[in-house]
Design goal:
Elements: H1 2-18, E1 23-24, H2 25-31, H3 33-36, H4 41-57, E2 63-66, E3 72-75, H5 90-102, H6 106-121, H7 148-157, E4 161-165, E5 174-186, E6 189-196, E7 201-206, E8 210-216, H8 231-238, E9 245-252, H9 257-262, E10 265-270, E11 273-280, H10 284-289, E12 295-299, H11 301-316
Antiparallel strand pairs: 1-3, 2-3, 4-5, 4-8, 5-6, 6-7, 9-11, 9-12, 10-11
Length: 317
């Protein structure tokens, strides 16, 4: 079905771009096989109106012209649908080359290569090699999670998804119905931002905690998509990166190096324990739970209570 519609849209676009005069609905129906196969005039009219709207949404400028006899015709003038010349200097071409080399999985590597070939044909400077090495470090974005590709396509197509997700403090995964907005890599991990239908709120999910297959759901989005999706800022906030307070904890000697790296003060207590002062932000309780018996929260009291509640939930399974 998707292939048939894409072919029909392509044929309609070619007809509208190839004509020098407006074409009526009747002429377009006689020129496109899929329209000839429409069962009735009403069926054809609905199909044509949907296709016309889809092409306009894709960016094709379609003019509606009425002739002297009152008949309505359609055409897409080439000068109205021609992109401006593409001019890139050496620095911009180098940036595009580096961006293309970031993606290493086959599906996106092919798209990046094709895009650069089109840019070369459109005027990319001949003396610039977009694939040339630009230093000892070569950028890569690793993608090991099986959920990445179906979620990437779901974000692009605005399709809701269903997957099983295991929270850091939970023993078993739970189903999540999500309207996916955007994927972003932060500190070596991929995150999905979207609208959690079950909770009726925006949520961010770490892809490595998605278990099983990502299943698509045919229904459309129920919540508006924000103009800007701040995945990194949200994850940083949840991870305690954005903090306006401090917490005092005890940490077993020789353990918890990520906590030690964030500590603003460290004092040796003896008996195998150290006392650390660390930034306290939203999500710190979930992070501390991951260190299990190696961490003891001293203050503030609300952080200590949150950590205890999470540990009890894990113990109950």
């Amino acid at each position: 079905m998707a292939i048939a519609k894409a072919e029909r849209l392509m044929n309609l676009a070619l007809c509208l771009l190839g004509t020098r005069r407006p074409l009526s609905k009747r002429e377009l129906r006689e020129s496109i096989e899929a329209y000839l196969e429409a069962g009735s005039d009403d069926s054809f009219n609905r199909m044509f109106e949907r296709d016309k709207d889809d092409l306009r949404e894709l960016g094709l400028v379609i003019e509606t012209v009425e002739n002297l006899d009152g008949e309505v015709g359609y055409l897409a003038r080439r000068d109205s649908n021609r992109l401006p010349p593409i001019t890139l200097d050496a620095e911009e071409a180098a940036a595009l080359g580096l961006a293309a080399k970031v993606w290493q999985q086959a599906r996106l590597a092919g798209a990046a290569s094709g895009a650069l070939q089109k840019l070369r044909a459109a005027g990319l400077p001949e003396d610039v090699d977009p694939y040339e090495a630009h230093g000892a470090l070569e950028p890569r974005i690793p993608v090991h999670e099986a959920a990445f590709e179906p979620l990437m396509l779901a974000c692009r197509d605005r399709r809701p998804v269903l997957f099983d997700y295991r929270k850091a403090t939970a023993a078993h995964p739970e189903p999540r119905h999500v309207e996916p907005w955007a994927l972003e890599c932060w500190r070596g991990h991929w995150y999905l931002a979207g609208w959690d239908r079950d909770r009726g709120a925006e949520r961010v999910f770490r892809l490595s905690r998605i278990t099983g297959k990502v299943r698509s759901r045919g229904t459309g989005f129920t919540a508006p998509v924000p103009d800007v999706v701040t995945v990194r800022e949200t994850v940083a906030s949840w991870a305690g990166e954005i903090a306006d307070r401090s917490a005092l904890i005890r940490l077993r000697s020789g353990s918890g190096y990520p906590l030690r790296a964030k500590a603003t003060a460290v004092r040796e207590l003896g008996d195998g324990w150290d006392e650390l002062e660390i930034p306290y932000g939203h999500g710190l309780d979930a992070w501390l739970v991951e260190f299990g018996p190696d961490v003891l929260v001293l203050e503030p009291a609300e952080l200590r209570a949150d950590v205890v509640d999470r540990l009890r939930a894990v113990a109950k399974g």
